[in-house]
Amino acid sequence: MMLKIIKGVRFSSFRKFGVVTASVLTLGTIAQAAPLELTMQHMEQPPSRVEAMQVVVDKFNEKFPEYRMKQNVVGWGEAFTRVPAQIEAGVSVDLQQAIPGFFVYVREMGAKGGKASDKRL
């Protein structure tokens, strides 16, 4: 029975079916691509603040599944040396949460690095 059906179908129909199938498979692969990883760095070390930041991270990840954010805690004691070193090495984070004065400090030193996630683009 299947052979009779196949004999009645022209080759161009198979070709169209193949193109449509390949397109659907390609789109499915693109749609399932791994999320872009982002790092949000902050200086809020007390456990209650780290937990509060994690709530923000979790809500962001839920709302934007094409991204996967994680938090990185840097204490204020090392922030003024570590963050500039990250920038100089070209491995700065994607998002930095800090007080305004810290951003002035970083801006004045001159940003030479790019976001870590830029390396995937």
Please outline what is shown here.
By secondary structure, this protein is of the alpha/beta class. The protein has five helices and three strands, in the order H-H-E-H-E-H-E-H. The chain has a three-stranded parallel beta sheet with strand order 2-1-3, covered by helices on one side.
Descriptive overview:
The protein is an alpha/beta fold. The chain has two domains: 1-33; 35-120, D-Maltodextrin-Binding Protein, domain 2, CATH 3.40.190.10. Helix content is 56%, strand content 14%. It is built from five helices and three strands; from the N terminus they run ααβαβαβα. The chain has a three-stranded parallel beta sheet, covered by helices on one side. Helix 3 links the parallel strand 1 and strand 2. The relative contact order is 0.14. Residues 23-28 and 116-121 have low confidence and may be disordered.
